[in-house]
């Protein structure tokens, strides 16, 4: 799933994911649209824009984490080291290419596996 409010970036990201072997790529431009997609579709992983015209994707990131869906944050702001409200998330800096996106998603899958292997307190 791609959650991005810029239609050109959303389509480019969808194309990149398809070139990486993704089947159906769902696109949403708001958190509400993304939640509707999550209710109806099986999401394997997600690319989330951080800022979505007046809202952030933080709540969506937390929902994806709770559902054990790996995701990366796409941001054109900051140094990409960490973003408030998104603890321990993998960040890919915009603009990104297929290799950067692939590495980010692989890291996100690895984090999800690591957190699944760690017993809860």
From TrEMBL:
Establish whether keyword tRNA processing is in the entry: no
**Keyword Phosphoprotein assigned:** yes
Q: Which domain of life is it from?
A: Bacteria
* Modification sites for 4-aspartylphosphate: 49
* Response regulatory domain segment(s): 1-109
SUPFAM superfamilies given in the database record: CheY-like
Give the GO biological process terms.
phosphorelay signal transduction system
For this protein, the parts annotated as crossing the membrane are none
Tell me the keywords, alphabetical order: Phosphoprotein
According to UniProt, the name of this protein is Response regulatory domain-containing protein
**Source species:** Brevirhabdus pacifica
